[in-house]
Every structure is written in C-alpha cells, then in structure tokens.
Amino acid sequence: MATGPSIVNVDLPETPYKVVIQTGLLEEFSLPTELKLRYPHAVIITDDNVGKLWLNKLKRRLQKSIAQVDAIVVPHGEKAKSVEVANSLWQRLLTFQADRRTAIMALGGGVVGDLAGFVAATYMRGLDLIQIPTTLMAQVDSSIGGKVGVNLPQGKNLVGAFWQPKAVLIDPAALSTLNDRDYRAGLAEVVKYGAILDEKFFGEIEKQVIGLLARKPEVLQPIITRCCEIKSAVVLADERETSGRRSLLNFGHTFGHALEQVTAYNKFSHGEAVAIGMCCALRLAVQMKLIVDEVRARIEDLLVILGLPTQFPKLPPDQILEAMQRDKKKGAAGVSLVLPTKLGSGKLVPWPGDQPVREALR
Ligand SMILES: NC(=O)c1ccc[n+]([C@@H]2O[C@H](COP(=O)([O-])OP(=O)(O)OC[C@H]3O[C@@H](n4cnc5c(N)ncnc54)[C@H](O)[C@@H]3O)[C@@H](O)[C@H]2O)c1
Ligand SMILES: [Zn+2]
What we know:
- The protein has about 350 residues and is α/β, with parallel strands linked by helices.
- It has two domains: about 5-180, Rossmann fold (3-Layer(aba) Sandwich); about 180-360, Up-down Bundle (Dehydroquinate synthase-like, alpha domain).
- It has helices at about 50-65, 85-95, 110-120, 135-140, 180-195, 200-205, 210-215, 215-235, 255-260, 270-285, 295-305, 315-325, 355-360, and strands at about 5-10, 15-20, 40-45, 70-75, 100-110, 130-135, 145-150, 155-160, 165-170, 335-340, 345-350.
- A seven-stranded mixed β-sheet has the order 1-2-9-6-5-3-4, sandwiched between helices. A two-stranded antiparallel sheet has the order 7-8.
- Strand 10 and strand 11 (about 345-350) form a beta hairpin.
- The protein is globular and about 60 Å long.
- The termini are far apart.
- The structure holds nicotinamide-adenine-dinucleotide and zinc ion.
- Nicotinamide-adenine-dinucleotide binds near residues 53 and 182.
C-alpha cells in the first residue's frame, strides 16, 4: 500500500530529531537523508522474536549504504532489560570495534528500545541511537522522549539516562506479526493519550475501533502519528520530567504500577494494568466530582470494546495503597495522582486520602 510518510518533528533545542511513520518502511528501509552517509558502521540490537521476523530484511537494506552492519540478538522479554545483558552488549560492541561513528539501531519493542538505548548512551560515553520500534507500545510511547534504562532486581528502570535518538522510524505494518495481548497493551496507551490530552483524538479512536482492531495500516498510520505528536509536544514542554506536564502521561499509571507490582508482574501486562488503572482514576475523579459519570463510562466503554480489562481484581486494597505510596514518581509532597477534569484534560492532584482511593479500587 503506497501511503506517504507522516513526519513528526521533536524540536528539542539541542537534540532535534524526526519521527517518520510510514507503512511499509521496514520492507523498503532507508535512513532519512540527513543521516544517510553519516555512519560507516551500524549495530542492530533486537530480540529473538523480532529477529526472526524482521532482522534480515533490515540488515540487507542497511548493507546497501553502510559498509559494516552487525547484529546482536538478545532474548525477548523484560528479563533482558538488565545490567548483565547490557554488559554483554558492551562486550560485543568492543569485539565489533564499535566507536563513536557507530550507530546503534534498536529494532524491537520497549524492552529492546530501553536496553539498546541505555547501551548507546553509555558505551564510549554515547553513540548515536536510531529507534525502530515494532510494538504499538514502543511506536506510540517508549521510542520517543529519550528515556532509556535497565531494571535492577529491586525495581524497574532504576538505572538509566535521558538519551535522545537521532531518528525514530516507525512501520505500522510491523504490528501485523505482534501477538494480540501485546497489541492490546499498546491500545491502552493510545486511549490514554485521547482520554487525558486530546478530546478530538479520543472521538477519532472511537470512530476507528474496527479498523484499529483489524490493524489496518491506513487506520494505524494516522493514529500512531497523532500519538507521536502528543508525546512529542509533552516531551518538548518537559524534556526531563521536571515541570509536571510530562506527568499527565502517567494517567492510570500510579494505580497500574501498583497493580503490576502486587501481582509480581506476571498477571497483567503493563497495558492491561494501565487500562484498569485509568478506570480506577476515573472512578476516583467521579467521586471527587472532577468529572461526570458519563465521561467515565465513555472511556471505560472504549477500553472494553478494545478488549482491555477495566475491573480491579480481588486483591487486598492495603497492599495496593502501600505500593502506590512507594511509587517512585512521588514528589516532596507525597504521592500525587493524575486525574481527568474532563474528556481530554487532566491535572495532577495531591493524594486525596486513603479512603477515597480505597473506594476507587472497588
Ligand atoms: N522509555 C520509555 O519512555 C518507556 C515508556 C513505556 C514503556 N517502556 C518500557 O517498555 C517495555 C515494554 O515494551 P513493550 O510493551 O514493547 O514490550 P516488549 O519489548 O517486551 O515486546 C513485547 C513482545 O513482543 C515481541 N515483539 C515485538 N515486536 C514484534 C513484532 N513486530 N512482531 C512480533 N513480535 C514482536 C517481543 O519480542 C516481546 O516478546 C517495558 O520495559 C517498559 O518499562 C519505556
Ligand atoms: Zn505506560
């Protein structure tokens, strides 16, 4: 299908870059003009799932314009986002004689993007990074904004950096091979953007549910593009998460992270936890009279249609409250929550007390 590229500019003053969204981009891969003759060496980092499906195509295409193209395949899954795997990547880069003219290409989901990005940020004090995200989650969220890192046994994302990519290259058609559960997880983040930041876009998602569920590229490309625009605007307003604007992206996440933690990260995917978390935040916002119940119902209905869970599971509320209080996004004034104030808008609200939060967990 011949659709032209959509471009989103992330105009950071010191490290501007382009996000290119184009159906079929991986089949006909080429670097943006401004990067084309820049690298004598590229190292693609991917995981075994994505490697089987997309690595050879990308490698062959890159070999047309880059003299040396190497690839490293890590195991798939969150476990690979570790210091040990990062260390093995540093070692492999040394054997490939990677240096400051080497480009790191992160081909995969958020795990590969965060891990390869972290390795790019740290090896020889920093190599150029190109993000080629292949999950919906990574295409609409993790590949943009420069947050890279690995997990420690004590918790997720405890070691990392801000390291902006030189380009983000997105092929919506890559999602055709993604499993249903991971695809839906990305849809939760798509709904999040509409629900808390863009009312008009929320209506667009509602109109396109059938095409979205069928992963029609002509529906996906504009939707992914809008998500990238929203994420880019938030990152531009608050690159290092200091002013609070970027925190709106945490809608549903304080509840969601707590749910993931309490269930030891093996019951809900991140997207499922965020979907449930958004519904908790919506119920709380209704209780606090920030929104009317119709807004809650409309967002919840969309999540249900997209196949996402919305009900909080039967778990001891105290464990959840405790996990929420431990959330690392906690400021000096304690935990605050992102709550909607109407469809497409929200704000950061100080902890409203344990009782209302407990009720929102019902
Ligand atoms: N840096 C950020 O700003 C940011 C934001 C959100 C999430 N994250 C991180 O992202 C990670 C989650 O990312 P994710 O949801 O993409 O998970 P993931 O990277 O684990 O990918 C999910 C699964 O899909 C497979 N896969 C990927 N692309 C595929 C394709 N096109 N076809 C078939 N299979 C494919 C992967 O091998 C994996 O098994 C977490 O570690 C999270 O912390 C980071
Ligand atoms: Zn998320």
